[in-house]
Write a structure and sequence with these properties.
Helix content: 25-40%
Oligomer: single chain
Number of helices: 9
CATH class of the largest domain: Mainly Beta
Number of domains: 2
CATH superfamily of the largest domain: Immunoglobulins
CATH topology of the largest domain: Immunoglobulin-like
Distance between the termini: 32 Å
Largest sheet: 5 strands, antiparallel
Structural class: alpha+beta
CATH architecture of the largest domain: Sandwich
Shape: elongated
Strand content: 25-35%
Order of helices and strands: EEEEEEEEEHHHHHEEEHEHEHEEH
Low-confidence stretches: 1-22
Length: 360
C-alpha cells in the first residue's frame, strides 16, 4: 500500500503550530545537501489550512551547505523546507536548539536524510523513509507504521498521511488519533481542528453510504451489482468515465506504480487485452498513486505496456474516492464488468480469460 508518495511527499492535510514553553531564545537549522550547490533554501511552518508561514531563507554554498537562524524558539508542529524544486516535511517538538540535516538532493523529498539535534525529526524521517522504501501493501501495514510515531501529534499526522481523510474504512483510526491528541494537547487549536476534521470525515462517510445504497443496494460490492460510476482525470488531465465503456466487457483494475504484485499481474492483463480488444473487451485502470507520484504512474504505464486508453487517478493514495466506494482494501483488486454494466466477477486473477469468455 505504500510508497508513500507517501509521501506524501505528501500533500498533507496537517497542522496548526504550537508554541514551545521552554524559555529558549532561538534555534538554528543547518545542513549539507549534496547536489544543492547555490540553490535557495526556504523554511516554513506548515499550517492546518494548508497555508505556510515563511520563517527564513538562505542560499547553499558551492558544497551544498546552508544555515538558517531563528530568533525565537521552535514551535511544536510541522515544518516544510524547500530546496530548489525539492521539498521535505518534518516535525519539531519545540526543544530543539540546533537541527542539522545531511543528505542528497534527489532523495530529499523522501526524507532519506541523516538528522541530528532533534529526536522527533529523526523519528519522523525514519518512519517516512521506511514507508517509502518498503511500500505498504495493506492498511494494516500502515497502522503498524503509525504506531511507531513518537507522540500523539506525530501519530495524528501519520494517520492523515498514510490513511487519508476521506476513506470510510479509516474513521475509527482518525477517532483514536483525535482522542489521543486531545489528551496530549488539550484545548489546543490543532486538537480542535483535528476533531473538526473527524466530524467532516464522518459526514462524508454517511453521504457516501447513502450514495452507495442508492446505486448498489447498500451493501458491499458484489457480483450482480451495477458497477458504480468512476469519473477521474487521466495523465493528460482529461476526465475519463467508466460509464462510457458500457456495451463492452470491462476489467476495472485498481493498481499503483509502487505495488509490486500489481506490476507482476500486468503482463497477464496486457496479454488478455491484446487478444480480445477487438472483440469488445477493454480495461479501465484506477491508480492509487500519490500526488507526487504522477511521474512514476505515467512511467509505469509505459514500461508495463498498458496500452489501453482509460487510465485515471485522483492521486490520493488509499484515500482514493473510487477505492472507498468499491471497498478496496488491498491491491491489485479487479472487477470484471459485463456489457450491461453489472459486475460479473471479482478478482478473477489468472482466471481472467476464462471468466471473460463466459460473457464476451
Amino acid at each position: 500500500m505504500k510508497k508513500i508518495n507517501l509521501l506524501l511527499l505528501f500533500t498533507l492535510p496537517v497542522l496548526a503550530i504550537f508554541h514551545a514553553c521552554n524559555g529558549q531564545s532561538g534555534y538554528t537549522v543547518k545542513g549539507t545537501i549534496n547536489g544543492a550547490a547555490n540553490l535557495q533554501v526556504l523554511l516554513e511552518q506548515a499550517n492546518f489550512d494548508r497555508t505556510n508561514t515563511p520563517l527564513g531563507n538562505a542560499t547553499c554554498d558551492a558544497n551544498g551547505n546552508f544555515e538558517i537562524k531563528q530568533e525565537k524558539a521552535p514551535e511544536q508542529g510541522l515544518y516544510r523546507m524547500t530546496i530548489g524544486a525539492k521539498r521535505l516535511f518534518y516535525i519539531l517538538d519545540g526543544t530543539e536548539k540546533t537541527v542539522e540535516i545531511k543528505g542528497e538532493l534527489n532523495t530529499l523529498d523522501r526524507l532519506d536524510v541523516e538528522v541530528t539535534g532533534s529526536e522527533t525529526f529523526s523519528c519522523y524521517a525514519g518512519i517516512i523513509s521506511d514507508a517509502l522504501k518498503n511500500q505498504f501493501k495493506s492498511p494494516e501495514e500502515a497502522r503498524a507504521a503509525i504506531k511507531k510515531g513518537c507522540n500523539p501529534l506525530m501519530r495524528a499526522i501519520l494517520t492523515s498521511s498514510f490513511l487519508g481523510n476521506s476513506a470510510g474504512s479509516f474513521v475509527e483510526d482518525f477517532k483514536t488519533a483525535a482522542k489521543d491528541l486531545n489528551e496530549y494537547m488539550p484545548g489546543t487549536k490543532y486538537a480542535l481542528d483535528y476533531d473538526n476534521m473527524v466530524k467532516t470525515l464522518e459526514t462524508q462517510v454517511k453521504q457516501q453510504a447513502a450514495q452507495q445504497a442508492g446505486g448498489s443496494g447498500g451493501g458491499p460490492i458484489q457480483v450482480g451489482m451495477e458497477a458504480p460510476e468512476i469519473s477521474l482525470p487521466g495523465p493528460d488531465g482529461k476526465t475519463r468515465s467508466l460509464s462510457t465503456l458500457k456495451g463492452k466487457v470491462v476489467l476495472l483494475d485498481f493498481w499503483a506504480s509502487w505495488c509490486a504484485p500489481c506490476r507482476r499481474a500486468n503482463p497477464h492483463v496486457v496479454e488478455v487485452y491484446k487478444k480480445y480488444k477487438n472483440k469488445g473487451f477493454d480495461v479501465f485502470s484506477v491508480s492509487l498513486d500519490k500526488q507526487d507520484g504522477k511521474d512514476r504512474w505515467v512511467q509505469a504505464i509505459e514500461k508495463d505496456g498498458l496500452e489501453w486508453d482509460n487510465h485515471v487517478s485522483d492521486l490520493q493514495f488509499w484515500n482514493s474516492a473510487p477505492a472507498a466506494v468499491y471497498g478496496v482494501r488491498s491491491i491489485p483488486r479487479t472487477f470484471l464488468i459485463g456489457r450491461d454494466g453489472k459486475i460479473v466477477a471479482i478478482n478473477p486473477g489468472t482466471s481472467l480469460e476464462s471468466e471473460l469468455l463466459k460473457v464476451l
